[in-house]
Amino acid sequence: MLxxxxxxxxLFGAVYATIGIGFSLVWGxxxxxxxxxxxxxxxxxxLSYTLYAVAGIDPFLSIPLVMAALFVIAYVIQKFxxxxxxxxxVFITLTFTFGLQILIANVCLLIWSADYRSVKLPYSxxxxxxxxxxxxxxxxxxxxxxxxxxxxxYLFMRRTKTGIAINATALNFEGAKTVGIDVYxxxxxxxxxxxxxxxxxxxxxxxxxxxNPFVGGPLVAKAFVIAILGGLGSTIGALVGGxxxxxxxxxxxxxxPSSYQELLGFSVLVLVLVFRPQGLLGKRFY
Amino acid sequence: xxxxxxxxxxxxxxxxxxxxxxxxFWVRLITFTFMFAVLASALNIIAGxxxxxxFGNMIFFxxxxxxxxxxxTRLGFSFPPALACSAAVAVAVAIVLGMLLLRLKGHxxxxxxxxxxEAMKYIVENMTKITGGGQGITVPSLRGNPAVIxxxxxxxxxxxxxxxxxxxxxxxxxxxxxxxxxxxANEEAAGVMxxxxxxxxxxxxxxxxxxxxxxxxxxxxxxxxxxxxxxxDVMWVVKMFVILLIGGAGTVFGPVIxxxxxxxxxxxxxxxFINLHLGILGxxxxxxxxxxxxxxxxxxxxxKGIKDLIPVRxxxxxxxx
Lengths: 286, 321
Prior knowledge:
Radius of gyration of chain A: 18 Å
Strand order of the largest sheet of chain B: 1-2
Oligomer: heterodimer
Largest sheet of chain A: 2 strands, antiparallel
Distance between the termini of chain B: 41 Å
Structural class of chain A: mainly alpha
Shape of chain B: globular
Number of domains of chain A: 1
Shape of chain A: globular
Strand content of chain A: under 5%
Structural class of chain B: mainly alpha
Helix content of chain A: over 70%
Largest sheet of chain B: 2 strands, antiparallel
Number of helices of chain A: 11
Helix content of chain B: over 70%
Mean pLDDT of chain A: 89
Strand content of chain B: under 5%
Number of strands of chain B: 2
């Protein structure tokens, strides 16, 4: 029972990592807490659902399409609106992304109605057993894809010119401008990449979780916890944060009634903020 | 100055006469607007004056509402002592939480308060024996003529609004208020100049909590039924922030103007397009942030408004990292 919970937690933790990486990227680079991050995940899940229901495309295969779609949406949002206020105070950017979240929720409500949607895969019950532990194939696939995405993102941030420019802009806005980086364009790309990762996470959760237009809030709450646990702007940190949250949730439910599960997540958030605001792994982004 | 006093006098007279002239629908609507004005003014003390974006302020609203509801149903309190206890609980929680969370800055503080409020929601929801859990709790209601009851709650909210406006107006002129503003402008410098920043920040949040808790208490008695997802809903705070942004943060009358504008829009637009209700609110938020982040009041009182609060595209290094 406990071992099974640990395995489940770790398998799902990789998806949490994907969610956390995108969220902490925007926070670290632009100093924006993107409340709409959960809504991007939700939109990803809806697109994956629609592609499956209409065209029969498997959620694992629709990931690149959904990522591209969310990149474009987020790029446009950043380029033409958020960039105007991106250097403003917490107050402003936080309220802006709240507005964005509400707007996206309403649009989804009009398109997909308030019903719960999820992808029902024909192979959803397939899996194998090692000793007492059951490993469902779908969850293993989700785990693998999430890890690959995390690895690709890590390489993107370190090996590509764009990734290095994002890092430079995060470290020193003025300095990046001086050396000729188009910082506002970099901001738009950053927001796009973050949303693309959220979209991928949406595809990954679509076979195992149901979504309705109001899951954006609870999802972004998880992103807070992961980002705070991992520390800002660190890919490895987000991976650790995601795994920890996955473990806390699944192992926690073995010992504590499931109605306390949400409370657990938020308590971890507040405690880490109070005692280790730099994240579990130590160093701050800057 | 004289014209200002005359205008305020006329407005006050109109407000006092209103419930005797208008129908129940309008009285309730204005009561609701007053309530939002009080909530936004309370947020203004910590967010507008002191510069700490307390995104979890609904925690005090919920605690005020639940304290009143529990005391009145379980322990047979009448409303006035329940109201006082609600205020005490809200202030006590603000002091304890404030000592922990007000050490955090910027986003970390915003997230910490949000997390605390969400955690409190689940705690209240899980204390089924006391709070009724997911079923919510029904508060004993006032008996009598609905028109009289409407008028009673109208004057409760109006009274709270007058009191908080006086407090905020005093804050805009006195030592305490200047200390708050000094913390917002530059906390390190304020500390160096001898302001005990922690104490003042906790004071600001406790003041904010006091009025938010009182409003929550009146809300519970007014609506006679509450449940945790409603009273701890983050949308309360989102609306408070939008009102502050529309009206002008860090000003005395900004929140009142903002509340009236937002509630008028809500009546005119949202009631006709029920499906688009949320989307329109979202759009309003985005447009307000983009095009008038310093609030309507900055159009009227040029130079008096607070310029350093919301520097759009501030080019210098981000102060709130």
